[in-house]
Amino acid sequence: MTELELKYGCNPNQKPAKIFMRDGGALPLRVLNGKPGYINFLDALNAWQLVRELREASGLPAAASFKHVSPAGAALGLPLTEEDRRAFFVPADAAPSPVACAYIRARGADRLCSYGDWAALSEVCDASAAEFLKGEVSDGIIAPGYTPEALKILKGKKKGNYNVVEIDPDYVPAPEETKEVFGVSFAQGRNGCRIDGGVLSNIVTRRRELTERAKTDLLTALVTLKYTQSNSVCYVWNGQAVGVGAGQQSRIHCTRLAGDKTDLWFLRRHPKVLDLPFREDLRRPDRDNAIDLYLTGEEGAILADWQRLFRLRPEPLSAGERRDWLSKIEGVALGSDGFFPFGDNIERARRSGVGYVAEPGGSIRDDQVIETADKYGIVMAFTGLRLFHH
Q1: Which CATH superfamily is domain 3-167 in?
Q2: Over the stretch 266-292, which tens digit does the pLDDT of each residue have?
Q3: Residue whose C-alpha is closest to residue 75's, from 296, 186, 237
């Protein structure tokens, strides 16, 4: 198939719409179920690039949860801890496969933002991954293949309308890419930069030790940023993006937004949150909304409506308990798609437990940024690699 007609573009009034190959060749993908839209394909193709490169950089299965052309989460297929299972609503008797673990963790980065996401897997989707997706509110999935059992499960989702796309894993795009804005054509070389351990070799701080886990986490952050709308900053913990700040005009606002998301991710793992007495019939999205209300300080709203959500009235999480819990966090990795212009970004990052940073460098105040990192014993690498994505 050389082109695929779509219902409409970004909005219903934008017609006609289609995806096609300018050279007249066949599309490198197949729609196996559903009818994906314009934005669905933008998410799918960006998400596929992310997970493919994350797989190459780490050697592990990778997954992403995409919303509006930026990742809500991205993660490697590491085993789930007991804490992970409880925070991500994984049944105690489930035995998720590595690729399923990757998606569970990607979805668990920001479950509120992942509502109605587009999923991407670096590996063939198996029944284990499909079974977990079955219970989530999601628009579609892209993967290099599907087992027969997985495809059957996914085709039964959304009354048979769930979008399932198969991508050719061997497809290599043209070295030049084009787009149009207001009738004006733009062309640029595709961003084919390779992100591997070599980009972390220029350590500029007094503290210089990068653990293997820190390296993997920093690479995870950088690959995620490569496909996040700029400006962007990404916090990573144990192979999982736990805070993504995308599309902000100010670097410090990226850092704050992603840091606040990171704090919420860690607070979701507080014993009081893990032990919230949800009603047995409460769906996952309603649990996510209830947790967000519980953690964002809207105590009056949640306590006034607690009987709809909980079996018992929940005990509030005090400001002191929050501070105590977050003060114990350390070893978080932080990546930035552009240089930090001031040390305030490091100051904010440190409040969320950041111990490792990777950023391009090149600011006229690099010395100030390095000095701030040294003040907290943070290891920082200048990658020399800007990762803007628009």
Answers
A1: AICAR transformylase, duplication domain (3.40.140.20)
A2: 999 999 999 999 999 999 999 998 899
A3: 237
